[in-house]
Amino acid sequence: QVQLAESGGGLVQAGGSLRLSCAASRSAFSANVMGWYRQAPGKQRELVASITSGGSTDYADSVKGRFTISRDNAKTTMYLQMSSLKPEDTAVYYCNAMVGPLFAPYWGQGTQVTVSS
């Protein structure tokens, strides 16, 4: 069974840092690609960062140099270290896994990140 559970969201002042965690079942962690998405009120969900099973990473231009995605294979956990946070980073952040040969998408329940100015 594919399961994803985010944690680590909260309220932080602009310029601060947060680390999000995504605890994944083994079936989820075997995904070809895992990633973090976010959705702000009134906006579409957007890709923030992704990491392949081989460790290759990619980032949205808006977060390059500020966010770092990583994974701990032993703990089957993916992380998003967020630094120099801005009010525009405020959103619900979702963990995603693209599983199997058809890249079936699975989602966590989301965690709220609020950055105050």
Summarize the structure.
This protein is mainly β. It has one helix and eleven strands; from the N terminus they run βββαββββββββ. β7 and β8 form a beta hairpin.
Write up what this structure looks like.
The protein is 3% helix and 54% strand. The longest helix is centred in the first third of the chain and has 4 residues. By secondary structure, it is mainly beta. It has one helix and eleven strands. The strands form two sheets. Strands 2, 4, 5, 6, 9, 10 and 11 form a seven-stranded mixed beta sheet that branches. The mean pLDDT is 96. It is globular, with a radius of gyration of 13 Å.
Helical proportion, percent range? under 10%
User: What's the multimeric state?
Assistant: single chain
Total number of helical segments?
1
Q: What is the C-alpha radius of gyration, as a whole number of Å?
A: 13 Å
Distance between the termini: 40 Å
The count of strands amounts to 11
Low-confidence stretches: none
N-to-C SSE series? EEEHEEEEEEEE
Average pLDDT = 96
Principal-axis shape equals globular
Beta content comes to: over 45%
Largest sheet: 7 strands, mixed
Class by helix and strand content? mainly beta
